[in-house]
C-alpha cells in the first residue's frame, strides 16, 4: 500500500526537530545553559541528547513512505540506488564544508559530524529498505543492538586489559583511534564514531518500522494505538536495558536507541492523531516551514553563526552583547542564553519562510 497524501505530522516533526537542533547548538553563552539544553557529559539523557536520534527516526519513517511510493510508481531500483547514493554524497559534502568553516584548515580536518552520520545512516537504511522486508529489518536491528552490547561489555579494551565504558578508553574510542582518519571532536574520542554509527542505523530502522505501520490498511485510530503502545514498551525496555548498559548518547548505546526510539514513536503517534486525524494543523506551520528545507536551514545556521558568534562588533560578538545586556538588566544568565537561542532560531526562520513561500525546495 502507498499513501496518497503527505503526512503533515511528519513534515512538522522533521522541521521542529531541525529547529530544536539549532536551539541547542547555539545558546547565547556556552557557560550558561539549562541542564536539559546541554548534552549530558556521559551517561544519562537530556532533551538535547534526544534531538539527533529523533531526526534519524523520522528519516526512517520518510524512507519507508517515500520509497514505497516510488516503487509503487514503477521506478526502477537502479535509478533509486543512483539517487540514494548522490543524495547521501551531497549531505556528506555539506557536513564536510561545515567542518572546514570558517578557516578551511585541511590539516586538522574532522571527517565525522551530525550531517555525515545522517548521510551514512540514510544511505544504509534506504539500501536496506529496498532489499528487505519489515521483519528482516526488525531482526537486523535487534541483532545489531545485541551484538553492540555484547562487544562493549564483554571485549576488553586493547591496551587496558579490561572492559571499560569510560570516555576515551572504551572499545569504541580505541577502534576510532585505529581506523578513523583526521581529527576527533574530543581529542581521544568522537561522539560520531565508527562503531556507534551501527546503532545509529538502528535508530533509523525503528523509524522505518513505524513507517511500515503507517502504510498498513488498519484504521488510523488503531495506528495511533500501536505507535503509542510500541513507543511505551520500547522506552521501558530501553530503561531496563540501561540498568546494565547505560543510556549514553556519546556511545549511542543499545539502551539509548530503545529509549529515544520509544519516545519518538510516542511523539509521532501524538502528532499523527492531532494533525492528520483531527486536522489541527494551524500550529504546525513553523515546523512545516523548517522541514521543507531542513538540511539547507541547518547548514545556513552554521553560516549565520560566523556572523553572530565570531564577528566582533565594538569589541564583542553579538551573542555576548545580548546576553550581557539581559544579565545586567537582572535576568538569569541561563534565561538570557536561552532567549538568545530562541532569537537565533527566529533569524533562521526568515530564510526558511522565504524559501517555502517561493516554493523553493533545496533537495539535500
From TrEMBL:
Residues 6-147 form the Heparan-alpha-glucosaminide N-acetyltransferase catalytic domain. It comes from the Bacteria. The keyword Membrane applies. The keyword Nuclease does not apply. One of its GO terms (molecular function) is acyltransferase activity. Keywords: Acyltransferase, Membrane, Transferase, Transmembrane, Transmembrane helix. Pfam families: HGSNAT_cat. InterPro entries: HGSNAT_cat. This is Putative acyltransferase. The lineage of its organism: Bacteria, Pseudomonadati, Bacteroidota, Chitinophagia, Chitinophagales. It comes from Dinghuibacter silviterrae. The chain crosses the membrane at residues 12-28, 51-68, 89-109, 115-131, 138-158, 194-214, 226-245, 251-275, 287-309, 335-356.
Amino acid at each position: 500500500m502507498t499513501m496518497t497524501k503527505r503526512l503533515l505530522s511528519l513534515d512538522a516533526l522533521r522541521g521542529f526537530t531541525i529547529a530544536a537542533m539549532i536551539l541547542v547548538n547555539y545558546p547565547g553563552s556556552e557557560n550558561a545553559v539549562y541542564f536539559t539544553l546541554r548534552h549530558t557529559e556521559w551517561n544519562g539523557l537530556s532533551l538535547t541528547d534526544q534531538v539527533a536520534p529523533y531526526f534519524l527516526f523520522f528519516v526512517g519513517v520518510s524512507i519507508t513512505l517515500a520509497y514505497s511510493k516510488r516503487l509503487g510508481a514503477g521506478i526502477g531500483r537502479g535509478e533509486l540506488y543512483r539517487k540514494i547514493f548522490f543524495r547521501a554524497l551531497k549531505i556528506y559534502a555539506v557536513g564536510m564544508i561545515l567542518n572546514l568553516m570558517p578557516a578551511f584548515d585541511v590539516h586538522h580536518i574532522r571527517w565525522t559530524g551530525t550531517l555525515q552520520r545522517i548521510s551514512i545512516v540514510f544511505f544504509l537504511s534506504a539500501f536496506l529498505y529496498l532489499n528487505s522486508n519489515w521483519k528482516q529489518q526488525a531482526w537486523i536491528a535487534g541483532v545489531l543492538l545485541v551484538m553492540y552490547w555484547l562487544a562493549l561489555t564483554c571485549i576488553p579494551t586493547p591496551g587496558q586489559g579490561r572492559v571499560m565504558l569510560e570516555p576515551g578508553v572504551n572499545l569504541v574510542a580505541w577502534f576510532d583511534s585505529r581506523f578513523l582518519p583526521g581529527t576527533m571532536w574530543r581529542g581521544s574520542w568522537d561522539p560520531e564514531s565508527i562503531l556507534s554509527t551501527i546503532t545509529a542505523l538502528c535508530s533509523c530502522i525503528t523509524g522505518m518500522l513505524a513507517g511500515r505501520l503507517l502504510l498498513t490498511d488498519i484504521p488510523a485510530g488503531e495506528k495511533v494505538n500501536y505507535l503509542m503502545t510500541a513507543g511505551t514498551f520500547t522506552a521501558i525496555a530501553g530503561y531496563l536495558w540501561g540498568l546494565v548498559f547505560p543510556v549514553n548518547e556519546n556511545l549511542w548505546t543499545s539502551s539509548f536507541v530503545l529509549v529515544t526510539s520509544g519516545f519518538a514513536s510516542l511523539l509521532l503517534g501524538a502528532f499523527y492523531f492531532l494533525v492528520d486525524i483531527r486536522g489541527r494543523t494551524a500550529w504546525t506551520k513553523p515546523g512545516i516551514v523548517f522541514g521543507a528545507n531542513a538540511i539547507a536551514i541547518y547548514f545556513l545556521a552554521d553560516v549565520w553563526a560566523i556572523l553572530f558568534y565570531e564577528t566582533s562588533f565594538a569589541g564583542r560578538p553579538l551573542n555576548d552583547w545580548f546576553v550581557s545586556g539581559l544579565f545586567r538588566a537582572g535576568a538569569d544568565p541561563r534565561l538570557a542564553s536561552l532567549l538568545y537561542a530562541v532569537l537565533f532560531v527566529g533569524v533562521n526562520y526568515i530564510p526558511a519562510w522565504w524559501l517555502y513561500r517561493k516554493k523553493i525546495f533545496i533537495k539535500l
